[in-house]
């Protein structure tokens, strides 16, 4: 399975992709530090979209609000006091995989696999928003 997709003509992702390799736009909520983002895509001559096929496409972690010291965040508890990581990549044979780590690979909280580019982007954005806005970790 190759990371090549046919997107709906009116999809925002379709509009964001050009003939040259470029980053796919992601809505990253406040409170996240993007460690790396190599989610690159390009439009092929036949109109399909090719996405980079790395297992290391995207990594982000929650960030303590800058106005809180480490001690203040710890006393408040909740997600602001913890480091949550989201890791995403393309895995040959199964597709995109998104993993929520609380805080590291020894503590995998949720995982989602899809071979659909739109679903991948929607899930990645949705999980970061859920963690930021509600202070909840995804249960998927």
Helices and strands in order:
Elements: E1 4-5, H1 12-16, E2 22-23, E3 32-37, E4 40-43, E5 49-51, E6 58-62, H2 70-76, E7 85-91, E8 95-101, E9 108-114, H3 117-134
Key descriptive features of the protein:
140 residues; 5-stranded antiparallel sheet; 4-stranded antiparallel sheet; 21% helix; alpha+beta; 3 helices; single chain
Structural description of this entry:
This protein is α+β, with helices and mostly antiparallel strands and 140 residues long. The chain is 21% helix and 31% strand. It is built from 3 helices and 9 strands. It has helices spanning 12-16, 70-76, 117-134, and strands spanning 4-5, 22-23, 32-37, 40-43, 49-51, 58-62, 85-91, 95-101, 108-114. The strands form 2 sheets. Strands 3-6-7-8-9 form a 5-stranded antiparallel sheet, with helices on one face. A 4-stranded antiparallel sheet has the order 1-5-4-2, with no helix packed on it. Strand 7 and strand 8 form a beta hairpin. The longest helix is centred in the C-terminal third of the chain and has 18 residues, at 117-134. The protein is elongated, with a radius of gyration of 16 Å. The mean pLDDT is 89.
Which structural class do the helices and strands define? alpha+beta
Q: Into which percentage range does the β-strand content fall?
A: 25-35%
Number of strands: 9
Mean pLDDT: 89
Helix content: 10-25%
Assembly state: single chain
Rg estimate, integer Å = 16 Å
Q: Whole-Å distance between the termini?
A: 24 Å
Strand order of the largest sheet: 3-6-7-8-9
Low-confidence stretches: none
Gross morphology is elongated
Along the chain, the helix and strand elements come as EHEEEEEHEEEH
- Counting H and I runs of at least 4 residues, what is the number of helices? 3
What profile does the largest beta sheet have? 5 strands, antiparallel
């Amino acid at each position: 399975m190759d990371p090549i997709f046919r997107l709906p003509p009116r999809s925002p992702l379709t509009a964001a992709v050009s003939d040259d390799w470029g980053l796919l736009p992601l809505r990253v909520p406040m409170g996240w530090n993007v460690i790396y983002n190599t989610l690159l895509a390009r439009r092929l001559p036949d109109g399909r979209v090719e996405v980079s096929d790395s297992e290391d496409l995207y990594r982000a972690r929650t960030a303590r609000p800058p106005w809180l010291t480490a001690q203040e965040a710890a006393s408040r508890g909740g997600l602001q006091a913890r480091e949550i990581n989201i890791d995403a990549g393309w895995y040959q044979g199964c597709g995109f995989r998104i993993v929520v780590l609380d805080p590291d690979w020894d503590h995998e909280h949720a995982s989602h696999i899809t071979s659909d580019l739109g679903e991948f982007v929607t899930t990645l954005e949705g999980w970061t928003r859920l963690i930021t806005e509600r202070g909840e970790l995804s249960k998927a």
